[in-house]
Amino acid sequence: MKFKNFPIYRIEWVTSAFLIGTAFLSLTVVPWFIWTYAKDIQGWGFILALFTFYYFATGISITLGYHRLFSHISFKAKWPVKVFVLIFGAASFENSALDWSADHRIHHKHVDEDEDPYDISKGFFYAHIGWLLFRLKPKPPVTNVKDLEADPLIMLQHRYVQWIGLVVGFILPAALGWGYAVLNGFTNPGLTAMACFLIAGLLRTVIVQQATFCINSLCHMFGRQPYSHGHSARDSAWVAWLTYGEGYHNYHHEFQHDYRNGVKPWQFDPTKWVIWTLSKVGLVQDLRRVPDSRILAAELKEKSRTLGNDVDHLVSRLDERSRELKASTIAAAHALAKDLAHRAEALKEAAITKAEVGHDTLQELRGLLNQAAEMLESLRQADASAVA
Ligand SMILES: [Zn+2]
Ligand SMILES: [Zn+2]
Question: Which end of the chain is more exposed for a tag (fewer CB within 10 A), N or C?
Answer without folding.
Answer: C
